[in-house]
């Protein structure tokens, strides 16, 4: 997993860090932007949602995006300015686009649950445009 973190401009974590020192370890690679997950302990200091601009791209983050049905429309309503919403909770990798919004759940590199591999997401942003988003296996 570390090979994907080396050289990163930023690390986005969609929650379920579980313990705060994990964010410190990730910060050794790049600045970390995280939201709090339902499995995070009291030492994980992160907001419930986060909106930021990365390389000119408007990004929103939330841990639990709710049920699959209506998710894109719900995220559009929740984050009307976002071009990308990164979320977690299910640990199931998802990459969907509609109505000028891309939503991405990168899965989990450490708790794959019922998935065949642990995964993470890689984003390439150039001049305010998400030019590449991919979910890669790491286990």
TrEMBL record:
Its EC number is 3.1.4.-. The keyword Transit peptide does not apply. It holds the Pfam family Metallophos_2. This is Phosphoesterase. It comes from Acrocarpospora macrocephala. Belongs to the metallophosphoesterase superfamily. YfcE family. Keywords: Metal-binding. It comes from the Bacteria.
């Amino acid at each position: 997993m570390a090979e994907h973190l080396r050289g990163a401009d930023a690390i986005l974590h969609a929650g379920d860090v579980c313990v705060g020192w994990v964010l410190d370890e990730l910060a050794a690679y790049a600045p970390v932007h995280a939201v709090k997950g339902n499995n995070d302990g009291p030492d994980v200091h992160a907001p419930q949602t986060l909106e930021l601009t990365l390389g000119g791209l408007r990004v929103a983050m939330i841990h639990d995006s709710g049920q699959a049905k209506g998710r894109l429309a719900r995220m559009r309503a929740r984050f009307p300015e976002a071009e990308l919403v990164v979320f977690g909770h299910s640990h199931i990798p998802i990459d969907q686009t509609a109505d000028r919004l891309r939503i991405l759940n990168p899965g989990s590199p450490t708790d794959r649950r019922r998935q065949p591999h642990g995964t993470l997401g890689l984003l390439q942003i150039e001049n305010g445009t998400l030019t590449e988003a991919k979910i890669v296996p790491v286990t």
